[in-house]
Amino acid sequence: MCAVDLPAVILLSMQYNLVAGTLAPYAESRPDLRPLLDRILNYEVLGSFLLTEIAHGLDAKNLETTARLLPSGDYDLHSPRFEASKFMPPSGVVEGLDRVAIVFARLLVQGEDRGIRPFVVYLSKNGRMCKGVTSRLMPGRPGSEALDHSITTFTRVRLPRTALLGSHDRPANDRDNFLSCIHRVSIGSIAVSLMSIPTLSVSTFIAAKYSLQRTVTSNSSEQVPIWSFRTQQIPIIRAYALLAVMKSFAREVIAMYTRPGIDSTVKSALVCIVKAFLVQQSQDRMLEMAERCGAQGLFLHNQIASLQLCMRGALIAEGDVLVLCIRLASELLIGRYEIPVPRCPQSFLARYEKAFFALCKENLSEIKDHRSEQFNQQILPLCRPLVEAISHRMAYEAALDSGTVDRPLLDLYEITTICNYGAWFAEQKELDMSAKKLMELEEMAVSAAVPHLKRYMEESEAEAYVQAPMLVRENNEAFINGLECSSGDDLQGVLADMYKNAFSHIPSRL
């Protein structure tokens, strides 16, 4: 479904994971919430999750929306300035459905700030916005035009005392309480990241089938499929190699994340690592798949460009991947916690990770304060590359241990990753990873994998979700015939008349 209607999947994720998932723990001790939870689970009411604001994204702990406890026990929900408006989640009227939201606001009790709390707030009922709620529809985002992204402002919205989820007592630890309130966000981050697998799978299938069907005329006047060219084979086989590794890594991360007793900090690390790997790697490969389809790959109706543009939002959704990497890498470097150690410490990718981590630690040893300008200049730019190095190593180990990834694909994934770090490997003479050696290894892996292309395509199970008209002649012709058309009855005659009229005032010399 992700590859057919990604915006619908995004709405489902928000409805069930963020909204129902946040509400469910409170409904266990509050029977009054259960009817609403049932309506959300049955999709009888639309759910929205309003956390971030125009001025506060990843620093949502500093959000400005307030919910002031009134003497009556009710609450006054208010956006103190426009920059405090909730940013991006849909909030407008949808005909035939009410819309309810989990709104995060700063609880004020007799002037005392008691931290960020979730509130149940109806945004619209019976086809009309609720009093004090303003929703501004944002322009469409390429690839997800169907989503009604909105900016939502609250003006003295009166909420019943039952709107607050949890107690209005001051928490023992504001940070822990905030993280507890938004615990579904990290799960959502993994869920959004996992969408990279079906979207890349469909994109790669489209590029592969297009390459098998599209032909060029050779010097001997024969029709030759463009798949026969190495420039088509390498990126497509690379994409299938990445997909095989992604699937193994995803299964392992899910098993680790759901393991009973796992520390919350390790969970946060896993979320960052899997997002940095799945989303960014799939983005790079989908761009290649679109390019390998030539001009037709640029158009949204042929799916690849649409999927790639929509999934770009996953780099930001449920936490900007760059900032998440900065947080994780910084905490790893200063020793706040550790991630699982390499299972294959002598592998090429584990060696690179170890060396890069040591380089970061060496730079850090010369910096006294992790909030200094020196830290900003010398460590921050290394954070994302460090997390990516960790993710490549963990993904490789997961694929290796799974025993389900074809050896040529696993080898190609490893070689492709090594090429990304070619400068470091070239310095390690004992590893014998010169540019020439890498080219030879890549050639061997690609040659071994190419004969199995159709099997990779079939095993991906992507064909059922492919809708690109360009892959079927009849579909493409029908699509083109359905486009807006402009034509002339006799263009040559029109041009002749224009020429005659333009020069009719000039005497003939003949």
Automatic annotation (TrEMBL):
UniProt cross-references to SUPFAM superfamilies, sorted A to Z: Acyl-CoA dehydrogenase C-terminal domain-like, Acyl-CoA dehydrogenase NM domain-like
InterPro entries reported in the protein's UniProt record: ACOX_C_alpha1, Acyl-CoA_Oxase/DH_mid-dom_sf, Acyl-CoA_oxidase, AcylCo_DH-like_C, AcylCoA_DH/oxidase_NM_dom_sf
Gene Ontology CC: peroxisome
Keywords from the named record: Signal
Highest taxon of source: Eukaryota
Residue ranges of every copy of the Acyl-CoA oxidase C-alpha1 domain listed in the record: 199-332
Residues making up the signal peptide according to the UniProt record: 1-21
Cross-referenced Gene3D superfamilies: Butyryl-CoA Dehydrogenase, subunit A, domain 2 (2.40.110.10), Butyryl-CoA Dehydrogenase, subunit A, domain 3 (1.20.140.10)
Keyword Signal in annotation: yes
Molecular function via GO: acyl-CoA oxidase activity; FAD binding; fatty acid binding
Biological process, per Gene Ontology: fatty acid beta-oxidation using acyl-CoA oxidase; lipid homeostasis
A Pfam entry, by short name: ACOX_C_alpha1
PANTHER family in alphabetical order: ACYL-COENZYME A OXIDASE (PTHR10909:SF382), ELECTRON TRANSPORT OXIDOREDUCTASE (PTHR10909)
Protein name per Swiss-Prot or TrEMBL: Acyl-CoA dehydrogenase NM domain-like protein
Species lineage: Eukaryota, Fungi, Dikarya, Basidiomycota, Agaricomycotina
